[in-house]
Design goal:
about 290 residues, elongated, alpha+beta, 14 strands, 4-stranded antiparallel β-sheet
Length: about 290
């Protein structure tokens, strides 16, 4: 028993020595931790808590509002620039199409008006007159520059139709006669029709009358009342064509068949004048032969 007791006491002492030894080695006398160690551990835990909390914390409401506002501003600016570019491109396309349509219509009108032929019509009283009828919204004449059939004499009617949208309609008819021209309605459409121009506000025709005194633009022209005369020129006035830089557009087209007479007016030589000219030329020839 003494040996066991000694052994137990020895073992307990060794255990105490063992437990006490490391404690003393770590600076804890008597096997209890010191105040400095406890304070050190407490300070370490307090300094690590705010860093962990700051890392886990998200954005504030003010920061989110500022970010969304900036994003909205950038989106609005980008959309405005994109919309402005699209509108400019659309306006450019409309301007190009309008200019092309106007050029095509102008080419057709100029070619046909310049090629007007002083074709004689005969009314119900068998009175002959040069067939050219014109108002502010329509005109009809015989031209040598028909679009159908490769040209040739053609009866042409231009008419402004104020529908939605307004349009300028040109119709041609290669089949006509003097009696039909003088007795049928002037604005009777031809066999072939085409829309030359559309989507304008207004379009009107004017006709230049000149007899050597003072030129006068008229809104109407009646070939039956003008004593075998054609207008010196035809003016086309168009207002409100979309896409053009100018609001009003005009074109003056000379009539090549009209020429100046003795008084400077536009007209045609009568048969008496032509015979007188032939007689004068023959007299001159006779004088030349006599002198020889």
């Amino acid at each position: 028993m003494n040996d066991d007791a000694r052994t137990g006491r020895g073992g307990g002492g060794a255990a105490e020595a063992t437990s006490a030894g490391p404690a003393r080695a770590c600076g804890f006398p008597g096997g209890r931790p010191g105040r400095r160690g406890a304070r050190g551990r407490g300070r370490g835990s307090r300094s690590g808590a705010p860093a962990a909390a700051a890392a886990a914390r998200g954005f504030t409401l003010l920061e989110i509002v500022i970010a969304l506002t900036a994003l909205a501003l950038v989106t609005v600016i980008c959309y405005g620039a994109f919309h402005l570019g699209i509108r400019a491109m659309e306006r450019g396309e409309v301007a190009v199409v309008a200019a092309q349509r106007l050029r095509v219509a102008t080419d057709v009108i100029i070619r046909q008006v310049k090629s007007i032929v002083p074709y004689k019509a005969r009314n119900r009283d068998d009175e002959e007159y040069v067939f050219f009828m014109g108002t502010a919204s329509s005109m009809a004449f015989i031209t040598g520059a028909g679009l159908e059939g490769g040209g040739g004499l053609t009866r042409v009617v231009y008419q402004v139709v104020m529908d939605d949208p307004p349009r300028l309609v040109m119709s041609e008819s290669p089949f006509f006669s003097s009696r039909a021209l003088g007795r049928e309605p002037v604005d009777r459409p031809g066999l072939h029709s085409a829309v030359l121009l559309e989507d304008f506000k207004s379009l009107k025709f004017e006709y230049l009358f000149y007899e050597g005194v003072e030129p006068e633009w008229r809104s109407e022209w009646n070939g039956h009342d003008e004593e075998d005369m054609l207008p010196v020129a035809v003016r086309v006035l168009v207002d409100g064509i979309p896409g053009l830089e100018v609001d009003a557009w005009g074109q003056e087209i000379p009539v090549m068949a009209a020429h100046y007479g003795e008084e400077g007016g536009a007209g045609f030589l009568d048969e008496d004048d032509a015979d007188a000219g032939d007689d004068a030329s023959s007299d001159d020839d006779d004088d030349d032969h006599d002198s020889d």
